[in-house]
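Q: Hi! First time doing this. I have a protein sequence and I read that you can turn it into a structure. Is that right? Here it is:
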Amino acid sequence: MSTPDYSSALNFIAACWLVFLGVWLVASVSTKRTVYRESAGERARYWLLLVIAYFLLTQGRKFPYPLSFILIPRTASSGWIGAVLCGCGLALAIWARVVLGRNWSGVVTLKEDHELVRRGPYRFVRHPIYTGLQGMFLGTAVALGHLAGFFAVPLVFVSFWIKLGQEERLMLKQFPDDYPDYQRRVKRIIPFLL
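A: Yes, that's right. Below is the predicted 3D structure, encoded as structure tokens:
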């Protein structure tokens, strides 16, 4: 019986990202009507970091040294550790997206009849989609192993931190009685820590 090899792990990670993209595209057509949307300038603050992180992660092996330096050897073990992290991140992101339902948006918005969702993964972190995506980026970086990918992970974190700050200000205005209590009880992005 042969063991799964490194390329199989990379194929699994690629499939995770394709599933993520597919779910998000399909689910985006059934959201509530938007009553407020952030400005393009506000959106650019976090999107620019996310785009840079994406290129560091996916193209890092093509960058000059030291960004192309292989920090974690590309083995079946490291590939599958990354694949498991990526798969768990995907599962969390999809679970959160399903629970959020029609309130979801890819940018900071307020939807018509917006609900404060506190069930499912939202019991453990206030922004579980970002937690899941962070896990997907980390898993991909582990599997690919190059230094540029590990620079991408904190950039993604900072991008999400900026975005969730904007989202939280909006939620505090929309739910001034309930959101402060939710903030006190539930961490932002890492369960029980942060």
